[in-house]
Amino acid sequence: MENIPRVLPKNLAVQLDANKWTIPPVFGWVSKCGGVGEEEMARTFNCGVGAALVVKGTEGDNVIAAIEALGETAWCIGKVVEKSQGKGYILQGRIFFQKNNFILQCLQDFDQTLP
Length: 115
Description:
This protein is α+β, with helices and mostly antiparallel strands. It has helices at 25-34, 38-44, 60-69, 100-113, and strands at 12-17, 78-82, 89-92.
C-alpha cells in the first residue's frame, strides 16, 4: 500500500477500502501463522492488489470496463484525498478476520492450491 502514494503529489494520499477487493486466502494464512498484523500486512504485501492505477474519478468506470474487456478483474479500491499528515495512505475496512473458521477456510483453500 505504500507504493501507491509514490505517484501522487506530496499533499495527497490514497484512502483505500479493503472491503472493495478480493483478498486471496493465502494472505490470511500468512497473517495468522506469521503473527503479522493487518497494518504490517498492508504495508509489506500487495494483499491481492497486483497493480494500481490512479485515474480521474470520472474515468474510473471506463478504465475498469477496458481492463475487464481484456479478461482481467478490476475494482475501484479507493480514492485520492488531501493528505493530513503522516503516511500517504489511509486503510479502511478489515483485511483479515480473526475468526478461526475463516483462518481454517484460508488454510483449506491454500492447501487445495498446492501441487
